[in-house]
Design goal:
alpha/beta; 4-stranded antiparallel sheet; Arylsulfatase, C-terminal domain; 10-stranded mixed sheet; binds 2-acetamido-2-deoxy-beta-D-glucopyranose; GlcNAc_6-SO4ase; 2 domains
Amino acid sequence: MAGPRLLALLLLTCCARCAASGGKPSNIILILADDQDVYLGGMTPMKKTKALIGDAGATFVNAFTVTPLCCPSRSSVLTGRYPHNHEVRNNSLSGNCSSALWQSGPEASAFPVYLSKLKYQTFFAGKYLNQYGKKGAGDVGHIPPGWDQWNALVGNSQYYNYTLSVNGKEQKHGDSYESDYLTDLITNRSLHFLEDRSPQHPFFLMLSPPAPHSPWTVAPQYQKEFSAVKAPRDGSFDKHGKDKHWLLRQPVNPMPESSLNYLDSAYRKRWQTLLSVDDMVELLVKKLDSIKELDNTYIFYTSDNGYHTGQFSLPIDKRQLYEFDIRVPLMVRGPGIKPNQKLQAPVLNIDLAPTILDISGTNLSSVNVDGQSFLSQMAPSLRNGTARPFFLVEYTGEGHPTSDPSCPKLGPGLSECFPDCVCEDAYNNTYACVRTLNGQNNLQYCEFADSESFVEVYNLTSDPHQLENIVKKVDPAILQAMNQRLIKLQSCQGVSCRDNK
Ligand SMILES: *[C@@H]1O[C@H](CO)[C@@H](O)[C@H](O)[C@H]1NC(C)=O
Ligand SMILES: *[C@@H]1O[C@H](CO)[C@@H](O)[C@H](O)[C@H]1NC(C)=O
Ligand SMILES: *[C@@H]1O[C@H](CO)[C@@H](O)[C@H](O)[C@H]1NC(C)=O
Ligand SMILES: *[C@@H]1O[C@H](CO)[C@@H](O)[C@H](O)[C@H]1NC(C)=O
Ligand SMILES: *[C@@H]1O[C@H](CO)[C@@H](O)[C@H](O)[C@H]1NC(C)=O
Ligand SMILES: *[C@@H]1O[C@H](CO)[C@@H](O)[C@H](O)[C@H]1NC(C)=O
Ligand SMILES: *[C@@H]1O[C@H](CO)[C@@H](O)[C@H](O)[C@H]1NC(C)=O
Ligand SMILES: *[C@@H]1O[C@H](CO)[C@@H](O)[C@H](O)[C@H]1NC(C)=O
């Protein structure tokens, strides 16, 4: 009896990918939505996804992005590194979004490269990085290493009238629902890939739908859904950010009717576009079941960053340090993950790469990542590991060198000034925060690189909506400790980013 039991134990401890089916490595699917919040009800419309992934596996109730903007966040997902290490600062080519330096540097050792070495069959479809496929970013001919099948959107999210790079060749699409709706096209191509795969090797799919990003183009059959839904009015909705950094002191408060109508309509259309993503998840799970791979496949569902609609009187966007923008949905099902788990351990988008590589059987000490595998959190029978008690969130503000012609009074340095000339970003909306989250403490400490060296501190235990900046009240010893921790994290690299002291 001892023999088989020892063997079983070895299999469990050494090789998560072999656990499910007697030696065959596990497949992995990563679905990355665009701008989907979790804090303001972003998952509510996705009933099938919650049932098929969340209820069938683990829901991480404390999942965060380390930077609340598409291109830097996606670069963190791909590399497992903080922005100060992958050096993608914003959504522009000059800020390294899909730039030549990104391509020759961090992208060349992104996690798909390692999966490919292990003979995973890899497939990508959807939005990649905001500047992908543009002139100056290698055009559609650039296929990042590690990918066997490549269907990437040129530029930022769109639902119709877009261009794809299909394995390096340009493919233009119009606006017929049946042949062009991007979310459905991603679904269809991934189903075909699964049909055509070779059963000898495991597969990895990364599906990156445009939803629920603007321009919120809804599939025809869903245009009448949620007609009575409005953005939630509780928490920090339309509260004046009077004790916050300067950008949060400028919005019109209370918000004008025009802003309210605009954000309610955006909120509703976001939910409607997500219904097509919900269909994607259902069809994928059905296909995996029919090809008998469901029990041997990990499915991750998450988003690049959160979103806000009216919080602190900011109409719509992301880019802020508050919970609504930095929290993201994260659900995972797969071998060794018990159903219906709600997990409290904080996990980050930089943890996706090491977790996926851990599942694949890659030796993590040979990979340069700042994040850590959370396989131990969701499948303790497969891995031992400890949760991190705190982490870094860092953001470099975007601006325009000239003033916005539609808001000439505002002057240069700002961006995203719509509607009603309320700006969502500026060069000096540049900040770094330590977020502490463990059994004892739920705190956030942030420093701005602006002319006021502004500091914001929140006690999320007593103030979950971050209504009161307690910087002037809190014990100075706590401020000092948080400041020291921030300095260390801002220059951390690899192991030192995981140092819990
Ligand atoms: C872009 O990345 C390169 C290294 O890949 C780095 O040297 C450069 O400073 C980065 N640019 C910015 C604006 O951070
Ligand atoms: C797609 O482009 C065509 C031609 O420019 C235009 O008429 C149509 O309105 C566009 N469709 C969408 C959904 O933007
Ligand atoms: C996706 O496949 C379905 C079912 O075959 C089809 O009805 C739909 O038109 C396809 N959509 C796209 C965008 O390819
Ligand atoms: C993993 O890699 C590290 C560093 O390259 C090496 O020291 C270690 O022996 C490897 N572990 C296994 C199990 O191969
Ligand atoms: C976890 O650690 C304990 C104690 O060291 C050990 O007995 C157990 O086998 C480990 N489990 C896994 C899955 O690594
Ligand atoms: C992006 O970052 C680069 C390098 O710091 C900067 O020159 C550029 O102005 C930034 N883009 C925006 C829109 O802020
Ligand atoms: C931030 O930048 C804007 C635009 O340049 C400027 O108006 C504002 O005074 C600056 N605020 C701080 C605190 O640096
Ligand atoms: C945060 O609030 C909780 C609950 O009111 C309190 O017990 C704790 O001491 C506070 N922490 C700090 C650092 O103020």
